[in-house]
Amino acid sequence: MTTAEEQLQLIERMIKQSQQKFSDNGKFYLLWGWVALSASLIHYALLGFTDFSMPYLVWIILMPLAGIASSIMGKRQSKQADHTLYSDKVMPYLWAGCTISMLILIVLGYKLTWNIVYPLLLIIWAIGLFSSGALIRFKPLMYGAVLNWILAIFAFFVAFDVQLLLIACSMLFSYLVPGYMLQAQARRDAA
Amino acid sequence: MLPNLNPLLHNQLRLSIVSLLIGLEKADFSFLLKETGASKGNLSVQINKLKDAGYISVSKRFVNNYPKTECALSPKGIKAFEEYVAGIKKYIDPS
Fold it and tell me: Which residue in the set B25, B31, B92 is minimally distant from A82, CB to CB?
């Protein structure tokens, strides 16, 4: 180590190295993606092909279970992580904010109509995805957010059962595809 | 050799540790070991030197019965790093 240029290069290389490590391995996007994809398709099937009077029960059962699983995974991940980015601290607050907004919409949804509630949920998810993508500098999440905004606009003009299919589509391309990409990236980093 | 620069940071491994920590909230020993490519003994010695100077804080805890040593840059360490970078830039571009 002799010259100022070499010193600066070392600093730049180390900073780049630390920032390029994805601490997000996509687990949460995969969990919520699979749960909400299943819930929306089951809801759609119960609504269209059975006489079951409370098809929405699938959400009431699956979402809290996913919430519990998510919180256990979060605690375990933060204990085991070998490094913590500043964005890792912001992310739980961002998604907690989205969840609180969603819960308010769901609980008070009866004051609106469900045809309005579901497009609004898509918009809230888009905010979460867009911000998360920017925080961890992962564009597929941001593209997923744009898709959610487009689907939300469509959703305002279609029937409730079609909205369920739009949610399934959102889960597939906005959560599961980026989730698997993040998982692959994390495996490459670990290798 | 570059004179008038903080001698504590004017060491490849210590500078690597601080440069890694500057962008992170915290990192544990195994992460620093992997990213710097240093030996355990040398890394441990240099971490202690940075800790003694008050540049980093070191906390130890157990996760699943395994010890975990976490390091984070202190405000004093951030200031020293910023001054060091400013000093180096002066050598590269004296204007």
Answer: B31
